[in-house]
Amino acid sequence: MNANAPVSRGETFPIGLTRDSEEFRTSSHRIAQFAKSVDDENPHHLAGKFAPPVFSHVPVMQSMVEILEQVTGGFALHGEHDFIFHTPIVPAQRLFTVSTLVGIGATKPGTTFIVRSDTRTHDGKPVITQYSTCLVRGGAPAQSHGEAVPARPTSARGAAAVVSRYALTPDQTRRYADAARDYSAYTIDPAAAAKVGYAAPLVHGMLTLSLAARAIVDDHCGGETPRLKRLGCRFAAPLLLTPGQTLKVEHWNGPGGPIGFEASDKDGNIVIKNGYAEVSK
């Protein structure tokens, strides 16, 4: 994402800054469009019965980006994401999201901004809570402020990992942009990607995680997305939309713990690390 409204470094970072969303109405068509954009083969998703897990980010984008535009001064990389699922997204829901800047982190690479987004139905029932951690490279505050992200589960490889591979098509980011309404120029236009230092368009972080989530839902949830209770990862490096690009997802059942996964591109570069998922029985 690209944020272009800087806040002076002399100002106090506005922990607690809040933005709410417009009403987001779900439909079987919108859910199916998202599934098709990530080449999902799950029949429930393609029929629009219930949404793929990463679809949950679509209703929060407006309010999350508005916060980042207020507090960042340039190109922000999506560093980590954590989904906590309360109830499935299905057609005919009316969803409302409140996003809040809950933390600012002082790190060696730069400043991290932590945004918590809470999505509820029109009658107040919780649907999903998610934490987005975004990085702006360069000068950082002298110290961290506000809250840290919740403790995240770890999953040591207790057994051989299962490997799933997904090929990306040349129009993959365009199709995803249409489905998610995320038209960040550097994900579509090579010239825009070059301006932020990359040799090819960047694959949306949520598109990359959507592909990894296909493996989790298909192989660990038996295709039943409502069984997925938590999903998250660290984006170790951008996935680039180069000719013949693929995503290799390695996933495993941790010994007595959550599912773990990581993902790499066609050249073996790790793009997702410390992935985790919690699944109900």
Task: Give a written overview of the molecule.
This protein is α+β, with helices and mostly antiparallel strands and 281 residues long. The protein contains six helices and twelve strands. It has helices at 28-37, 43-46, 61-71, 172-180, 190-195, 205-220, and strands at residues 18-20, 24-25, 77-85, 94-106, 110-121, 126-137, 145-146, 162-167, 228-235, 246-253, 259-264, 270-279. Strands 1, 2, 3, 4, 5, 6, 7, 8, 9, 10, 11 and 12 form a twelve-stranded antiparallel β-sheet that branches. Helix 1 runs antiparallel to helix 4 (172-180). It is globular, with a radius of gyration of 18 Å. The N and C termini lie far apart (36 Å).
Output the keywords.
single chain, about 280 residues, alpha+beta, twelve-stranded antiparallel beta sheet, disordered N terminus
How do the helices and strands line up, and which of them pair or pack?
Blueprint: E1 18-20, E2 24-25, H1 28-37, H2 43-46, H3 61-71, E3 77-85, E4 94-106, E5 110-121, E6 126-137, E7 145-146, E8 162-167, H4 172-180, H5 190-195, H6 205-220, E9 228-235, E10 246-253, E11 259-264, E12 270-279
Antiparallel strand pairs: 1-4, 2-4, 3-6, 3-9, 4-5, 4-7, 5-6, 8-10, 9-12, 10-11, 11-12
Helix pairs in contact: 1-4
